[in-house]
Write a structure and sequence with these properties.
106 residues, mainly alpha, globular
Length: 106
Amino acid sequence: MQHDLLHIQGRPYMLVPLHEYRQIMAAQGSEAKDLPSELLDRIFAREVHPVKILRAHRGLTQEELAASASLSRPYLTEIETGRKEGSITAIKAIAAALNVPPGLLL
């Protein structure tokens, strides 16, 4: 396996194929084991916020997830759209409501 080394602003970064990255993360216990690989690919691609992807996968509305995480729906919307990062407490509550590790949402 060959990996590319990139330098961005003087700092080295390793370019790793997505499937290898997922294997590394799984070995560290940071992925939810019950999630399909296609879903994990979408989460790691970061084209859409992970909260939105997982909420839809679990079949929840924003209102339902917000209530389950004890958050307001507008705050959840701001997290899903990237307008707010969400506090650590909020991310932990969302992760618990979605039954995933908090690291998957960050």
